Amino acid sequence: MIKDQDNNENEFNNVVDEILNIFYNINKIVDLYKLTYEYIRNSKYCELHTINIEVIKRLDTKKIPDLLKYIIINYYLYFVSLFMNLGLLDKCLEILTYLYNKFPEDITVLYVSGYLLKKLGQYERVIEIFNKIIEKFPKSYLAKFELAEIYYNIGNYDNAYKLFKECIEFNDNDIESLKYCGSICFRKGKYRDALEYFKRAYEINSKDSTVLYYLVDILMILGKIKEAKRYIKEILKLSSEDPKLYVISGTIYNKLGEYKKAIICFDKAIELFPFLSEAWYGKGIALEKLGRVEEAIECFNRATSLLE
Question: What is the pLDDT of residue 8?
Answer without folding.
Answer: 67
